[in-house]
């Protein structure tokens, strides 16, 4: 009998060791190295049509390279196409990661059902019946989608050969198992081996493959980082599970930009594409409420109008509470200190709560000014006009700093019917004849001055 071969892998970064050790020398994590059995019998490879015709690569002049092969497949989903960079490239491997229950299986099944190409959806997680039940909720009539429940890669390739699909979806890479490796499914060596086999299949037959990958509790795709290096595109599906919005972004994309963003809304009948996100991120309300301000932010390259809500109230306990949802709490404290020091507001004895609607997290510094405006509005208990919006960063000395791509933000605000946008005086703006009033300010005191004006008009009313 062949000797059982084992190797030690770091479960965090995938580094390989000859013997066990306490700390991984590569990623410096402790206690992550585990023994895995790898035993490779002679590979009697599955046959692909091209693997018999031996291809030898030759250098080609870059101008002579034919790109017509790289034609992209339309996924019939505007948001998905946009994130991929205009459709799926043939022979590419795409990995979709996300927390459990966020909707990865729903998204890919929904796309598979909609495609006009012959699609094979392979699931190692759910039975054919369960998938059918889910499919019935999403889109009951599809003639191109085949479902296979199988986890052994050798069997999968046999079925693929028989069916010859145009697109293959695998849910999920952690459930796959290759006979060439003895360790259990989901281990580092299995994930590596199964991905390698799928890459070989994708490149040789020019069939695009979509993989679902689980993520670990700190948000990385489970398995080694090497998995992310192996595939062409890494997509991340994220959102707050208690909210309906889901954001799809590309962390890596060999065939497009990583700045694009797709937005979906989870409904009873699957995921709905949201082509105009600003409309839903701004809450509907009767009349104007104090403590609300709208910020013009950018997510990737996409302008988004989001609503910030603040509540400032007298602290009940000795130490005032400060809490922020969707916004960095340290930055909130900094903005409060700036308001205290530069604009003379006594917020030291007040509780301050801040919330970004829609359950999304924003780290664009351009929302600073809207945060300050919402805090002032709540503190004075005076509502801002609902057609005002803000896009600027606030510095430590209370200066209003310029932000990138301000014109794109202004145009989005104009499109959505805002009457006035507050931006930094130091932003260079070449826009002419806009329907929106561009209010330039340079210091936090300027904003407070505007507030004074609003208060006076409120009292006169
Ligand atoms: P799922 O796609 O299985 O998540 P993942 O594969 O990322 O683990 O399920 C996501 C959640 O979405 C599930 O808890 C139920 C919900 N859901 C809907 O709200 N509407 C639907 O039409 C479907 C299919 C699921
Ligand atoms: Mg799933």
Written description of the protein model:
This protein is of the alpha/beta class and 461 residues long. Helix content is 28%, strand content 26%. The chain is built from 12 helices and 23 strands. It has helices at 49-52, 78-84, 104-114, 128-138, 153-163, 188-205, 225-230, 277-281, 329-343, 368-380, 406-415, 444-460; strands at 6-10, 16-17, 33-37, 72-73, 88-89, 93-98, 119-123, 145-149, 167-171, 209-214, 233-238, 245-253, 261-267, 270-273, 292-299, 302-314, 322-325, 350-356, 388-391, 393-394, 400-401, 420-424, 437-441. A 9-stranded mixed β-sheet has the order 8-7-9-10-6-11-12-13-14, sandwiched between helices. It has a 7-stranded mixed β-sheet with strand order 17-18-16-15-19-22-23. Helix 3 (104-114) crosses helix 4 (128-138). The protein is elongated. The model is unreliable at 47-53 (pLDDT under 50). Magnesium ion (MG) is lined by residues 104-105, 125, 171. Thymidine-5'-diphosphate binds at residues 98, 100-106, 134, 137-138, 266, 268-270.
């Amino acid at each position: 009998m062949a000797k059982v071969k084992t190797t030690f892998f770091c479960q965090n970064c995938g580094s390989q060791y000859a013997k066990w050790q306490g700390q991984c020398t590569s990623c410096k994590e402790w206690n992550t190295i585990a023994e895995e059995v790898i035993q490779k019998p002679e590979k009697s490879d599955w046959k692909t049509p091209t693997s018999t015709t031996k291809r030898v690569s030759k250098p080609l002049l870059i101008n002579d390279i034919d790109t017509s092969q790289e034609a992209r497949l339309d996924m019939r989903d505007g948001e998905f196409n946009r994130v991929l960079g205009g459709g799926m490239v043939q022979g590419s491997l795409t990995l979709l990661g996300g927390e459990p229950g966020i909707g990865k299986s729903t998204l890919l099944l929904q796309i598979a059902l909609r495609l006009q190409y012959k699609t094979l959806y392979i699931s190692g997680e759910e039975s054919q019946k369960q998938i059918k039940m889910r499919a019935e909720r999403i889109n009951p009539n599809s003639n191109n989608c085949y479902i296979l429940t199988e986890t052994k890669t050798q069997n999968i390739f046999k079925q693929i050969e028989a069916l010859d699909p145009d697109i293959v979806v695998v849910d999920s890479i952690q459930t796959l198992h290759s006979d060439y490796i003895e360790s259990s499914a989901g281990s580092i060596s299995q994930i590596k081996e199964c991905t390698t086999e799928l890459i070989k299949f994708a490149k040789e037959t020019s069939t695009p493959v979509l993989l679902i990958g689980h993520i670990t509790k700190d948000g990385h795709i489970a398995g080694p980082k090497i998995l992310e290096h192996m595939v062409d595109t890494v997509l991340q599906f994220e959102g707050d599970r208690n909210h309906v919005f889901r954001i799809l972004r590309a962390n890596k994309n060999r065939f497009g930009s990583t700045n694009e963003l797709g937005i979906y809304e989870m409904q009873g009948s699957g995921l709905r594409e949201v082509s105009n996100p600003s409309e839903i991120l701004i809450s509907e309300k009767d009349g104007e409420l104090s403590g609300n301000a709208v910020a013009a932010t950018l997510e990737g390259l996409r302008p988004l109008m989001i609503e910030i809500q603040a509540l400032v109230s007298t602290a009940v306990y000795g130490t005032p509470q400060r809490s922020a949802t969707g916004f960095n709490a340290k930055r909130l404290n900094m903005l409060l200190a700036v308001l205290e020091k530069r604009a003379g507001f006594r917020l030291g004895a007040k509780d301050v709560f801040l919330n970004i609607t829609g359950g999304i997290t924003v780290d664009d510094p351009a929302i600073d000014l809207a945060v300050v405006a919402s805090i002032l509005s709540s503190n004075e208990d005076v509502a801002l006009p609902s057609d005002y919006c803000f896009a600027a960063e606030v510095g430590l000395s209370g200066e209003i700093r310029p932000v990138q791509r301000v014109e794109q933000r202004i145009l989005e605000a104009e499109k959505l019917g805002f009457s006035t946008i507050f931006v930094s005086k130091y932003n260079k703006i070449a826009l002419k004849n806009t329907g929106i009033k561009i209010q330039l300010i340079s210091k936090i005191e300027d904003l407070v001055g505007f507030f004074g004006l609003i208060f006076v008009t409120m009292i006169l009313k």
